[in-house]
Amino acid sequence: MTLATELPSSVSSAATVEVREVWKRYGDTDVVADLSFEVHPGEVLGFLGPNGSGKTTTMRMILDIVRPARGAIKVFGGAPGVQHQDRVGYLPEDRGLYRDVPIIETLTYFGALRGLSEAEARSRAQRLLEEMGLAEASRKKAAELSRGMHQKAQLIATILNDPDLLIVDEPFQGLDPVNADMLKGVVRSQRERGAAVIMSTHDMGDAQTLCDRILLIDKGRRLLYGTVEQVRDAFSDGAVEVSGQDIPRRAEQLESVTDVTEVDGAVRYLIRDGATPQDLFRELAAAGAHVERFAVEAPSLDEVFIRTVAGDPRAMSVR
Amino acid sequence: MARPTSESGRIRLTWLVSKRDYLRTVRRRGYLFGTLLLPLGVATLMAISAFFSVDSVGDGGSSEGTVVIVNSSDVPITEISEGAVRLSTLSEAEARERLDAGAIPEYFIVPADFRADGEVTRVEAPTDASLSRLESQESKNQLVTYLLRGALLQEAGVSVDTAQRILGDVTITTVTTDGTEVSGWDVAAGIAVPMAFVGLFMISIFITSGYLLQSVTEEKENRVVEIVLSSIPADALMSGKILGLGGAGLTQVGIWVVTALVALPLLSSQIPDLGAIEVDPTILVLALVYFVLGYLAFGAIFAAIGAMAPGNREAQQYSGFLGFFAAIPFILFSVYLSDLDSPLVLALSLFPLTSPTSMLIILGVAPGIPWHLVGASLLALLLFAGLATWASARIFRATVLLYGVRPSVGQLMAALRARQ
Fold this sequence. Notes:
The structure holds 2 protein chains of 2 kinds. By secondary structure, chain A is of the alpha/beta class. Chain A has 9 helices and 13 strands. The longest helix of chain A has 17 residues, at 177-193. Chain B is of the alpha/beta class. Chain B is built from 16 helices and 7 strands. Chain B has helices spanning 6-26, 29-61, 92-101, 114-117, 131-155, 160-167, 184-221, 225-229, 234-270, 281-308, 312-331, 333-338, 343-350, 355-365, 371-399, 409-417; strands at 66-71, 80-82, 85-89, 106-110, 121-124, 174-175, 181-182. In chain B, the strands form 2 sheets. A 5-stranded mixed beta sheet of chain B has the order 2-3-1-4-5, with helices on one face. The chains are: A alpha/beta, B alpha/beta.
């Protein structure tokens, strides 16, 4: 199986994580089956899939929390394990803090576990708490914090050691829009810093705006793998949305289209097989239409997700 | 930042976990209370003892050491002055005058018909009742009784020595065939003191194992464990917890032992019978070894229970069941007193879950150290502790991330057989 997909231009070519033909079985079920992918420095990989599709198990295998039955995983070019703990940050889906311990103490402990000296961990934690507006909460116990403060503190714990590999499982789940935006900014800044990010999410909007590449799995198997553009293009049905004046509204008026619908004042044309958007543009001009907007539509990742899981054969081209 | 090797990284991380769990535990109120209870209890005992000894010295030097008798009978009472006690015979008017003046706390009237009914009247000034006052009254009443009986015996022609034997206590001393003196206190202390220590050791094993259980279930319930496990391997996490909390348990036991070693000589100067208690250093060392191995065996199992159980309450129930094993030797304590060689005692001493309690009792009550049994039980306990730690590490790793569900027997077996 090849791992080759086109890398985003901003991404370095040496893989931070390399997963090759990995299998993991629990009981009689293969929760991960023949899975392969790569993540590179400066890249955000959107890890998508329905609940129970094997995302969390895959992340745990990369972190050496569980081990694969077959296949190989390389992290920073070597075996996954404790030797990389100072270069990795992990925000699991099931996450929490010690309830009866001051936040600063918990963060210092987590930082020390990530290879920092206790003094360094404490100083970085204090700085990040200040940056996130939690300076006054540093001596408070987790039980005394609001949900939003909790989540910020958890994210601080994840990036305390300036990780080169950041693995975040549903990072924005349950956040209010303000905190979600702030945390998205943190993910972007980690990518800009050069960290490789693996981000699991159910929110296709987040995946579309934050991720360079996406990996969609179901029942442990890879269904889609490529840049966001590659994936959306593969599922594009050739629809073109046009707005302006004197726009033809019947399919019979244009040879290059098979269907016409009106959407919010614009006209949506479905291109006939073999025709191109350029053919449609020429026909519109010839028909005397005054075109103000001409947009080739690609499906949203939401649509791609639903179509892929439903078995759309177009997924094969970006598998 | 220096890149840690796999092994040095594991050691560092294990140390971090053990340090954190140790400090967190020894700062708990419950731990501090439990640990300091014994020293505080001993200090209180010493303070009470010192108070009463000062009080009694004070009694001897005051006018309350004087006994005044108004003798209206024909019994020949003679005035005496021995040590702190003075006996004076006065007329009732003189005695009353002194009592009213506060020179004496009371006087005794021996009536004319004393020989017939043996009654004596004690006259004292109105005063508040107090423990020391009651003690003083009781000792003077005994003294007056002793003097009157002595006077009657002398009058009957009994010699002073014989009269003293009749009136005094008879002391029975027990010696062994090698001439060693054995006091009743020796026997009681020989059972009670080791039992107290066995109890304390076992309590400490279970308190410490309980903290271990709590530490694992807390991290699981708080959803912290996965964050921690992304930094440290499961077996190193478990080892760190066992070491850290074991250290807390050893600190507790250490404080108790040091308290006992320091307090016994100090207390024996005030409570002479305590001087009879001797702590054999070899037994003390063996007791510590049983403590460590017992804790390792129970601690490893408790860690696995904490990982498997869906919540703290369920984990406590499972561990409580295990605790019953440790209590069995206590329940069968009479067997240990009657026949240390019984097959039941042997079985309980070799079965790893009852071995620590059983052997600590045996070390306390046996006349010598049964080295063969000690060797066999230590070997069994060591093997079991090793096996329990190995199995628990696998179960811990396989189950600690199962939230809210109980693993099946099949899953546990698979965890034990799994390739690591």
